[in-house]
Amino acid sequence: MISINSLSVEFSAKALFDNINYVINPRDKIALVGKNGAGKSTMLKIIAGLQRPSSGSVSVPADVTIAYLPQQMEIEDSLTVLEEVRKAFSHIDRMHAELDRLTSELAERTDYESEEYHHLIDRVTTLTEQISIAATENCEAEMEKTLIGLGFERSDFNRPTSEFSGGWRMRIELAKLLLRRPDVLLLDEPTNHLDIESIQWLENFLATKAKAVVLVSHDRAFIDNVTNRTIEISLGKIYDYSVNYSKFVELRRERIEQQMRAYRNQQKQIADTEEFIERFRYKATKAVQVQSRMKQLAKIERIEVDEVDNSHLSLRFPPAPRSGDFPVIAEEVGKAYGEHQVFDHATFTIRRGEKVAFVGKNGQGKSTLVKCIMGEIPFTGSLRIGHNVKIGYFAQNQAQLLDGEITVFDTIDRVAVGDIRLKIRDILGAFMFGGEASDKKVKVLSGGEKTRLAMIKLLLEPVNLLILDEPTNHLDMKTKDILKQAIRDFDGTVIVVSHDREFLDGLVSKVYEFGGGEVRECLGGIYDFLEKKRISSLAELELSTRVTEATTRTAKETPRKDSPKPEGSTPKLSYAEQREREKALRRARKRVEDAEAAVGCAEEAVKAVEARISAGESAPEIFTEHAEATKTLENAMSVWELAQIEFDEMNERYKS
Length: 656
Hints:
With 656 residues, the protein is of the alpha/beta class. It is 45% helix and 18% strand. It has a 6-stranded mixed beta sheet with strand order 5-6-7-3-8-9, sandwiched between helices. Strands 14-15-16-12-17-18 form a 6-stranded mixed beta sheet, with helices on both faces. Strands 2-1-4 form a 3-stranded antiparallel beta sheet, with no helix packed on it.
C-alpha cells in the first residue's frame, strides 16, 4: 500500500536514516520503536508528507488516505466539542460537491466515446458508491461513542473547546482522526494525554476497527495489545519483525546471540585457516593445500553482527536524608474550583519509605492533590508535611517549562550551585548529553530528551520525598526501565502519578484511586487494585466510577430507613411506578437483543462475501460489496455497544 524506498535523512552531516526500505500493508498494526532521538517522529512526518527526506521517496497510492496525530499541535478554540468533532465528516460534503460538479460536466459533454468521458463515468460511479456507504453511517452515534470512549462526559459535548486543557483538546483531535477511518493512522505518542481507562478503550478501537496503524508509544502494554508488527530504528537502520513488541524483544536478543555465535565460529575458522597458510606457506609439499585454503578463505562471506546502540542513561537518586516517620498526613482535605468540588474529605497517611501511586480518570484531582502537597494552591482541611521532609518535584509539564533558546549545558549551569557545578559535564554525560550534545539548544531536543534534561534537576540536591507527575511521558522503554529501577532503589518516599500500568507494576505498594469526588486507599500493587475492584482491566473503571457517583447522589436524595420520614414521602414505589420501571428495562433489554441479532446477521454477510473472495471471485463489485458489508457490521456493533451501555446504566440506576 505505502512503499518507503531508499529513504535517507541527514541532519548536520549526520545520518538519521541510511537507505531504508519497507512497505506498510493494509491491516498492518506497526509499532515504531527505538531510543529517543532515533528518528521515530521524523519517520511519521515523512510518511505524512510533512517533511522531505534527503534522498529516497515515499510512494502513496492516490486513493489511500492518511491521518496523522503529532505529539503537539495548534488547535482552534472557536467551536464546541461536537462541532469540532463533526469536522471529521466534512469529506462527505466534499464528495457531494465533487459529484454535483462532475454530473454537471457530464451533462454538457458530447464526446461519449472518449477516454476522458469514460474516466469521468468511473469517477462518478466511485463517488456514488462512497457516498452510499457513508450514508449508512450513524455519525451522531459514532461521535458520541468515540468521545465517551476517550473520557468525555455527555455534558461536555456542547462546551466550547477553549474551556479544555491542551491534553483534552488533543483528545478531540484524536476523536476526529478515528472517526475519519483513514486507510493509515499515524499516531505519535497518543497515550500521553490519556488516562488508563481511555487508553484501554483506544487499544480496543485500534485493534478491532482501525485499518493500518503506525504508532510511536512508550507504553509497552498498549503497543503489545494493539500491534502485530514491530519496526526498530537503530543507528540509521531498521529491523522489521512481524510480531508485537514483547515478542520482538525476545527475537532481537536471540538474533544478536545467534549472530555472535556464528561470528565467533567464523572468526575461529578464519584464524585456523590463516594459521595453516602462514605455517605451510613456504613448504613445497603443502603448496596445493595452501593454495586451496587461500581460495577457501577468499570465498568466505564474512558475517557481520548488527551494530547495537548501547548508550544508556545512568540514573541513581542521591541517598535520601532521614525524614520523619510520616512525610505526608492528610485529614479531610478538599479542593473546589467555584461550584465544582474536585475531591473532598481526603484522609490518608504516607509512611517514610513507601512508594504509592495516584490513579484515576483525568480531571479527578490527582495533579490537584499534588499541587496541594506542594503548597501551590489553597485547599480545605489539614495537610501536614513531616519533619525534615525535602521534596523533589517533577511536574507534568516540567519539560515544557524549559527555556528553548539556551543550551543543554546552560540549562543546568543556571540552577546548579556549589561543588555540583564542577560535575555538570559528568552529569550530562550520564544522561546521554555528552560531547556536542551538551551544546544543543533545548528547542531542538526531542520530547524524551527534554524530559531527561528536566529530570536532572531532581539530582542536583538530595531529597527524601519524590513526587513524580507523569514522569514517563516521552521516555523510551529502555529509559523508563532505568527510571523504574532507580525509583525502586531510592531509599526515600515516592508518590507517582501515572497511567502507565507496566511502569507501576512491581514499583508501588499502595494505590490511591481518585474518582467521584473521593480519594480511596487500596493496599497492594496496581494489579492487586484491579483485582479488588473486581475488574480485569482499568477499562471498566470509568463505568464503575459513574455508578458510584449515581449511587452517592441517590443515597443523598433518599432518606435512610432509620431516619425520620419527611412529611408526605412514600417509603416504596407505587405499583404503577414499578411496572413502568420494568417496562423500561424490558424495552432496553429488547434493544440489546435486537442489536445482537443485527450484529449476527451482519457477521454472516461479511463471512459470505469473504468466502466468495477466497473462492477466487475478483470482480470490482465484490470488493465494494465487502466494504459495504463491513461498514454495516461496524454500524451494527456501534448500535449494540450503545444499547448495552444504556441497559447497564439503567439496570444499575434502578438497583440503587
